[in-house]
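Reader question, answered in our methods column.
A reader sent in the components of a multi-part assembly and asked whether the whole thing could be modeled at once rather than chain by chain. We filled in our standard form and ran it. Here is what they sent:
COMPLEX SIZE: three components
ENTRIES:
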Amino acid sequence: MTSISSGAQDIVLRLDRITKRFGALTANDAISLDLRRGEVIALLGENGAGKTTLMNILFGQYTADEGSVQVFGKPLPPGNPRAALAAGLGMVHQHFTLADNLTVLENIQLGTVPLWRFSLKGTAARAKLARLMNDFGLRVDPDALVGSLTVGERQRVEILKALYRDARILILDEPTAVLTPQESEALFDTLRRAVKAGLSVIFISHKLHEVTALSSRVLVLRHGRLVGEVATRDTDRHALAELMVGAEVTLPSVAPGLPGPALLTLRDVTTRSMGAAPGLKSVSLALRAGQITGLAGVSGNGQSALSDLISGLLTPETGALELDFAAAAWSPRAAVAAGIARIPEDRHKTGTIADFSLTENAILETYAQAPFSRNGLMNWRAAEDHTRKLIDTYDVRCPGPSGPIRQLSGGNMQKLILGRVLELGPKIVLANQPVRGLDIGAITYVHGRLLAARDAGAAVLLISEDLDEIMGLSDVIHVMSEGRLSPEFRRGALTAAELGLWMAGQGFSDAA
Amino acid sequence: MRLEPIANPSLARSLGFPALAICVTVLVASGLAAIAGGNPLQTLGLIVQGAAGSKFALLETLNRATPLIFTGLAIAVAFRAKLWNIGAEAQLYGGAIVTVILGTSALSNFGGAALPLIALGAMLAGAVVLLVPVMLKTRYGVDEVVTTLLLNFIMLLLVSYLLEGPMKDPMGMGWPKSAPLDKDLRLPRIVAGLRLHWGFGLALISAALIWFLQTRTTLGYEMRAVGFNPQAARFAGIPLNRVLVKTALLSGGLAALAGFSEVAGLKGHLSLDLSPGFGYTGIIVAMLALLHPLGVVISAIFVAGIFVGADSMSRAAQVPTYIADMLLATALLLMVLAIGLTKYRMVRG
Amino acid sequence: MNALFDILLTASFWAAAVRIASPLIFATMGELICERAGVLNLGIEGIMVIGAFSGWMAVYLGMGLWGGVFVAMLAGMLFGLLHATLTVPFGLSQHVVGLGITLLATSTSYFAYRLILPEVTSPPKIEPFQAVEVPYLVDIPLLGPALFAQTALTYAAFAVVALTVLILYRTPLGLAIRAAGESPNAVAAQGLSVTRLRMGAVIVGSGLMAVGGAFLTLSAFSSFFFEMVNGRGWICIALVVFGAWRPGKALLGALLFAGFDALQIRLQQTPIGQAVPYQVFLMAPYFLSILALILMSRRAQVPSALMVPFNKGER
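And here is the structure of the entire assembly that came back:
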């Protein structure tokens, strides 16, 4: 193993006091780091800690305000993606950078042949790709359209893209967010092979167990600052977690709920698939009063379909959705009328209207009812009073109800959405990734509100990619994989690894 | 280079860029006048004088502004809900056709109710003309930009057919125009003796009503929500298609009122040159007004002034009247850019 | 019915169809290139007008026919540059900018025309492109006179289609253009500039649109008059949709469309045709375009990033 004191000639990448500001926000504050040959370092940090900004600077998408980058001892010209690629940097983005309408081979070749050549040199490319697939254990059909690939396969294409360009330094941004634990293991295997072949790896993550499994050093980012650098063998998860959030972490101890009758029942529901995202495949589910039902699974396995169904955006193709009273034609409005509090996955695109004020956003679901609307006329005074009440009750930090919502931080936006739906005294709460991208304070707040809703007798469905969140909060857990729903497990009945097997599609009755 | 959103643009920024856009447009105008061999200052002066230099000129400008207020409102209402209605021209002619049909019928027996009835009929016709592409959009997902554009050509051919066939004026001495409206069914002058008809008054009232609708009514709230973020609106339970259809009815109806007011207030009959592109110019009017209904009134008068002024200027100087269209197209592009620059700034890296 | 067959069996009908299709082919390819890169170009109508005008003017001022084509292309590219600057780096609404470009290009043409010919009532004529017969091939019955007795500009239109196919599907540049319209992030991640690719596509595409316009004055009508483009640009946008964003299918669509257009012109001369108002025939192309849009609406494969501005570092 490389030791921290090894010679300077081994350094393949050096960041020196990188600083980047966006307006008043300092996203990266004088960050320095060294990466050595054949080494895996982990860059750990919460959402918004500045990891992605740092990588965007490295790859020339942004230019740093201060500081410099050296690759293999040579300075890297700022703001030039081509130079970064040519210097041997390879990036596997969290959101894949693949074109669905092109084949695997075309995606890999994109940008590798000078634009003004009159040929794509397909044969040579094919041979090189075959060799790489062999060397690194990454199998995928070169002539398949990327649009038809699974998420795991797409990630392989992303890695192959970097290797095809002879990258010597691989940077992976949250690579396991979309993988099952088993797929992640395969990825780690590929990375170990890469390191053996002399490559260096920067692994960006906020998952502590991955970080400790793979890296030799861990660098922790918080609020744009490098707050710690430790050798992995000298630390443990608890210490890392503390460094990451900057405070003593106490996992919430959640008392079990008192389950009541089923308030929403799905019987054998099947829905149409939407492009690459699968629909539901004969899913049966009962959401009981006074308990949190956790839904685990790798994103893109039918959670959107389930969420859309309960939100009223989607109707079952076969099967039935049953509430404790008969609803008219199923629609978002019917869902609201049925007492379903809906916290959407994307609060910017689905949850709020950026050009609207807080008030206009606060009444999005109830605008057509008294007192906000009477005889087709809006009563803005009533709406504003209502919003003020929400701001107070839900601790929304903002200049006031008439300011545009786009100025709010993610946490405060989420609190307003919580207030909008919880204030109606819902019977059912649908929380889809409710804490994604929030800081620790907001996360605690949101979780507290969900628990309070449960204790008040609501049936809560919590959809999350974060197994820790699911296992910490849920009374019962289901797993989704390719549109299928696992049986119900009591909390603590299964370990994370066992849930992982379900997430990978094993255990389902129709599994191969 | 990339764009960085500005969360809270300063007042200087929100006003400065649009003001700069207008200044640049004036510069372009001077340049064009110079190219045409005219004296820039004199040309601009002639335009201003022709538009507002006399009572007659001013009234002419207001007369020309009247249909532009209607089409401008039609487009402002539609664009606010992200309904790309480029077919105001067709809806205008739809309204004009019905105005002539009803206005040459026995409707005058209804007395004072006749004109409102004709206006309603015209609005209905315009609404139907826009409803076709909107139904194609909601039913089949056909983009309404191209269909509304194509309908403009179809509608003009329909008018041409009507004027040569069923609606031809027997006393028209071969000109393709319709029979004139019944004398009692004309819009009266606002002030006796001055050439400004009640169409202008109706346009002002419409603008005020649309403003009220957008800010104070439930439908207005729905329209803005759908326009700003259809995904969030749908999630919240706002019925997208129903709001789009209502928007279409309103937008088509407003554009049709332009046809009604031109026929019943100004021309008295239908001809193929009833509208010199009021439907298209309405886009410029609406964009210059930043889609604000009261702003539409001001920008329509401004745009009309440029047309009227350029007409009178080209009679006096050697500068072609098409300078007005060029100026307005330039103003449109610059204004879009200016609005963009109030919301985003260009930053390095 | 017999009248219909008589028309379909004459070589002059097919020749007319190919002639009518030519300007549409140029402009449709231009629009297709823009849209494959992710930019809807509603400036097409006005760019065709400026192409028709500037090409004609260049020839009128003695620059020769190919000089006219060149000038038209240059003028189109200039307006393309303006469109691209506003819609690509500034990310402004492609709808509004496109319509603005159409208004600007049209009024610029009319302004310049009146500047050069202030008093003229009947537009002066130029000597247009003459038909060039391809030896031997022209003797093929029906097909020969239709395809191989056309003007050089028509042959160029077909060459442009072949070139578009070749570049889009066989070269690194085409690969990058297709990716830019589908997933600009993929392009940026590979170190290519989405901005340059899109701007380039819009500029070149606009050049082709202008040549399509120039065909009207240099090969079809031999003089410039107002409103001569008459919605052809909008029809081309419908043709791109009809062709599912593929050059080959779009070519087929243009020929099919032009065939119907040639047919309606001839049907007007028949006894049945004379019983129907001529306006009905003139409406046919626009109705056909709308019909094409309805038919293709369900299965169209729209480039995913069409009309979506790209901003570096944003996801």
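What stands out: The radius of gyration of chain B is 21 Å. The mean pLDDT of chain B is 92.
Send us your own complexes using the same form.
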